[in-house]
Amino acid sequence: MSEITNIDEYISGFEGDQKKMLEEVKSIIKNAAPKEAKETINYKMPTFRYNGNLIHFAMFKNHLGIYPGVEAIKHYEKELSGYKTSKGAIQIPLKSAIPEQLIIDLVNFNVNLLKERKYPSWENKNSMWDECQEFMNQIILKTKTPLKKEIKWGADVYTYQGKNVIGWGGFKDFFSLWFYNGVFLEDKLNVLITASEGKTKSLRQWRFKNLQDMNEKDILQYIDESVQTIEEGKAIKPEKAAPKEVTGFLLEYLEKNSEFKNSFYNLTAGKQKEYTEYIEEAKQDKTKLARVEKIIPMILEGKGLHDKYKR
């Protein structure tokens, strides 16, 4: 079930009782969520967003997973006593009845948490860059090689032969194009930068202050060159990493959830190390807890922390 771009596509990949269960859960969430809530795919899971992630859900071999977050599960600990849970996930056995009212309560709880959130949604944060967005929507239709539009990490990403080529988005002070194989580009205009020094491998950004600075011919040349690097097979090979001891909150979660533990240790040593260091580098316990909850669905899907830079 690769390259899923929306919830309905995800559900269509299942049959029988599994498909019916997913359709019912989607309907319950949609009816409970505010009309402003957006449907998308995050971490390869159906997701509803409302000023942030409202709730995720996903189908597994023996259960349906619901991911409402730490606070919601803690708040409804008593009501969830009949289900297998971690601090961020709920497992509903496939043969069980769907707990409709409980899901509604979880959604409403998160809506109340998120409705006053100061951090703007992706759509609101980028509304000032609508002209730049539309400019890129038109440019992408003019590339020499047709690219495939996919939704990854809540944003549009254009791919070629299954490899990420380009994405874009607006931020507070600039509009950015990100080239996933940017490290291999000649960069004749000397415009590409590394956004996260020491962490970013192949990804490079091209930032603009306004629409007037965006030249169609130049951007198309960079996109076409990016496609060429994929045709030439250029890619940074993942570095082999030595196993790193797992401690603290992450170890505690692994020991509590066998499915999570198995998924974690099925990852490469390098990916295990990335996750372990990601948790360890947080200074406060609250932040470590939040990070663990964030990575659980990624690990259950077999994804590495930095996979988006390696595709």
Please state the overall shape, judged from the principal axes of the Cα atoms.
Answer: globular
Overall helicity: 25-40%
Number of folding domains? 3
Count of helical stretches: 11
Task: Write down the CATH topology of the largest domain.
Answer: Aspartate Aminotransferase, domain 1
Structure description:
The protein has 311 residues and is α+β, with helices and mostly antiparallel strands. Helix 2 crosses helix 4 (100-114), helix 8 (248-256) crosses helix 9 and helix 10 packs antiparallel against helix 11. The protein has a six-stranded antiparallel β-sheet. Strands 7-8-9-10-11 form a five-stranded antiparallel β-sheet. Helix content is 39%, strand content 18%. The chain folds into three domains: 7-119, Aspartate Aminotransferase, domain 1 (Alpha-Beta Complex); 124-231, Aspartate Aminotransferase, domain 1, CATH 3.90.1150.200; 248-309, no CATH class. It has helices spanning 7-12, 16-32, 70-75, 100-114, 122-126, 130-139, 216-231, 248-256, 258-265, 269-280, 285-300, and strands spanning 38-42, 45-49, 53-59, 63-67, 84-85, 90-93, 148-152, 155-160, 163-170, 175-179, 204-208.
